[in-house]
Amino acid sequence: MPYRPGPTSGASALIKELSWDSEFFSRKIGKLFRVPKDGAAIDRLLRHAAEDGYSYLTCRTALAGTAKLRLLQSRGFYVTDIGATWERLTEKQPRAAFQVRDGSADDASSVWSMARGLFRTGRFYNDPFFTKKEAGLLYQTWVRNSLGDRGLKTFIVDKGGFITCRQVSKSKGEIQLIGVTPLAQGKGVGRSLVYHSMSWFRKNGVEAVDVRTQVNNLQAMNFYSKAGFRIVSTDVTMGMILGRQRRRAEIRD
Ligand SMILES: CC(C)(COP(=O)(O)OP(=O)(O)OC[C@H]1O[C@@H](n2cnc3c(N)ncnc32)[C@H](O)[C@@H]1OP(=O)(O)O)[C@@H](O)C(=O)NCCC(=O)NCCS
Predict the structure, then answer these.
(1) What's the pLDDT at 7?
(2) Cα of 186 from ligand 1 centre, angstroms
(3) Where in the chain do CATH 3.40.630.30 domains reside?
(4) Which residue out of 116, 185, 216 has the highest number of ligand 1 atoms within 8 Å of its CB and is therefore the one to mutate?
(5) I need a labelling partner for 131 at 20 to 30 A (CA). Which of 24, 89, 92, 147 fits?
C-alpha cells in the first residue's frame, strides 16, 4: 500500500518526520532530534511514535556521548553507522588530471548506472529495517535527484564518477556524495572531482568544506586524508524499528 502522510500527536515535539524518506520507503520514518534524559521518557516517546504510525526512528549523536549511547541502546536502539566528519580549507587547488564537467538533467541515466552498488558501507545497507535492494535504489535516486536540485551542484567525469556539492552558508560548503565506478577507481578520478569542486567552492566564496563518511569505509577515510582533509568530529547514527515492522526486520537480519 502506498505511504500516505498522516496526522501526528504526542511524539511530534521531539521527532521530526523525514518526509522524503517516508515517501521513498513507503513507511513513516522520523528523526529523534533530542534524546530524553531518562529511559522512562524514551519509552513513552517510543509508544507515542508507534501510535503516530512511525515504523522507524533514526537518531544521530556525538560518539563521545557514551552515556547517551548506552541509554539509547538500553531502550532498543541499535548502531547503524559510525561517522567521521572531515574538513578542509579551500586554498588554491592543483589542476584536476581528469576532465571534470558540470552535471545536468541529461546525465540522469549515466549517474544512475555509475551509482549502482557503490555505497555498500552506507548506513542504509547496514540496517535491517531496509532491504539491500531499497538501500541500493536510495543511493541511486539520491544522486539522480541531485541533478535537478537547485541547491546542489553535481560534477562529472565521464565514465568515471560524480560528486555532489552544496553551499551550506556564505563561507561553508559540503560534499554530499562522491562515487567512482569500480573500473575507474584508484586512477585519480576521485582526486580530480575533489580538486574541481574545491575550486568551485572557492570561487563562490566558500572557505571551508565538510564531508562525512562512515569510519568503516577505509577507502574513503584514506582518500580524504590523502586529499588534505582532517577529522573534526565523530558521531554515531542509531536506528529503532517500531510496531509490526520489527518482526520483519528481525527475520531479515
Ligand atoms: C572513495 C573513492 C571516491 C576514491 O576515488 P578514487 O578515484 O578511487 O581515488 P583516487 O584514485 O583519486 O585516489 C586518491 C588517493 O586516495 C587514497 N585511496 C584511494 N583508494 C584507496 C583504497 N582503496 N585504499 C586506500 N587508499 C585509497 C590513496 O591515498 C590515493 O592516493 P595515491 O593513489 O596517491 O595513493 C572511490 O573509491 C569510491 O567511489 N568508493 C565507493 C563510494 C564511496 O565510498 N564514496 C565515499 C563516500 S560518500
Answers:
(1) 47
(2) 6
(3) 10-83+236-252, 86-234
(4) 185
(5) 147
d(C-alpha 7, C-alpha 114), whole Å: 38
Share of the chain above pLDDT 90, in %: 84
Taking residues 106-117, report their average pLDDT.
96
What would the grid cell of residue 197 be? Answer: 569542486
Q: Is 185 in the pocket of ligand 1 (CB under 6 A)?
A: yes
15-38 average pLDDT score: 94
Query: Thinking of the domain 10-83+236-252, which architecture would CATH place it in?
Result: 3-Layer(aba) Sandwich (3.40)
Give the distance (Å) from ligand 1 centre to CA of residue 97.
15
Element (H, E) at 159: none
C-alpha 175/C-alpha 167 separation (Å) is 9
Q: Is the CB of 119 under 6 A from ligand 1?
A: yes
Question: Domain 86-234 sits in which CATH superfamily?
Answer: Gcn5-related N-acetyltransferase (GNAT) (3.40.630.30)
With cut-offs at 50, 70 and 90, classify the pLDDT of residue 244.
low
Is any ligand 1 atom within 6 A of the Cβ of residue 115? no
Specify the pTM. 0.91
